[in-house]
Amino acid sequence: MKFPRVLLADDHPEILEHVARLLHDEGEIVGTVENGKQLVEAALALDPDLIVLDISMPVMNGIEAAHHIRNSGSRAKMIFLTMHEDGAFVNAAALAGARGYVLKSRVSIDLMAAIRKVLQGHLFVSPPLNME
Amino acid sequence: MTGTVADITQRKQAEEALRESQDMLQLILDSIAEGIYGVDLECRCTFCNFACLRIMGYERVGELLGRDMCRLLHQIPQDGTSSPIEECHLIQTMRTGRETRIDDEVMWRPDGTSFPVEYRCYPRWRGQEIIGALVVFVDITQRKQAESALASVSGRLIEAQELERRRIARELHDDIGQRLALLAIHLTQLEENPPDSPELPGRIAELKNETTGIATDIQSMSHELHSSRLQYLDIVAAMRGLCEEFSDQKQAEIDFNAHQVPLPLPADISLCLFRVLQEALQNAAKHSGARRFKVRLWGAADEIHLTASDAGSGFDIEAAKRSRGLGLISMEERLKLVNGSLFIQSELERGTTIHARVPLSSDVKQVRVA
After folding, report:
1. What is the ipTM of this complex?
2. What architecture (CATH level 2) is domain A5-129?
3. Facing residues of B107 across strands?
4. Given A46, B18, B142, B259, which residue has the most CB atoms within 10 angstroms?
């Protein structure tokens, strides 16, 4: 897939801007939301190819939102972008149907690699977490 | 009739001087905040000060003078039976010649009300002979109230909360705050005197490391306060994480197992059980010397159960509740809030098991079972 339609979810505007800059000419940002509830609604309405989402969001967190999105039959591939380095969170993300898990501290290094891999049908986890 | 004018004048002067010094004494006595009264060997009141009247609720010195202070003030117990004279501390003081200090008795006012007092009895000597006693006392109603408020569970919980707030405030200010201030200074130095090119990336990398270090420590502080697994994942993941951390920190072995736990568990029940486990493990670490623990979490017929047992030195449950430690009491209070209950079995030298039980309402939706 050359030019995916991407939906972003994060309650920090600086993150949304940064990801938008990274994505720049490799994808089209079709929407940005700031909590899990808005995310589930937007995923249904916009039918994106890719969702980049945070875990810690108000109203509904990212893991719960991911469960809803997967259960709704959406074909969007989900990549988590989060501060949480705890292996239990990576497991929970996988159980919720995520294909990628990128640490925010490594966003500039890992995110684009993650997006490319996931769009090719593979999984991606930020290297420091691989041991878990 | 004998007596010269000079004699009469001298006697008058002596009387005058005596009166003056008595007036002075009374003035001093009346200006003192504590109640003071004197008794003779029969415990009859020989004098008292203004504060004595005020505290005891009498209007005139005349109401007290000559009365038996033991019977009047101390010896009327609430059930109406009278204690024998021997127990009166005034009598004891006059008999033994030793001062006594009492702070666990009450005095009674003429209107039938009582108040807690702290009083001291001093024997009055004339030469080698005891001729009476002096009592100095204060109404300690307020002090008693403050003590019991402090001792009550809610008072102590508030105290504990304030202690924790101070600790966090101190860590934020002294540790995190200082390191950030230092970082700002280093950045300013860099801004004002940028080092020559080859040095710059290295210098910036140092500052980045300092920043990351601060971020890590803030995350640890946050985690200590509230488990993020509990917030974003589920109670099983959170308890497993707690057991692993405890295991690492205390070099202990924890066998954790969860089965038939209906998820998601209501947030208040999750938090309650998590804190109960945390408290149980911390208590065991502090007091039992145990190194191996068994923790079980399971659901059965509209209830959820948590047990934590060790084969450590055990403890005296009643003594632990009476001591200043809040641990057991706060476990019980937390469980009460969710209609749960706590059973503790502990035998000295045999070990301890705590068992918490919380009912679940039947409309808790079972989405996943761990």
Report:
1. 0.86
2. 3-Layer(aba) Sandwich (3.40)
3. B115
4. A46
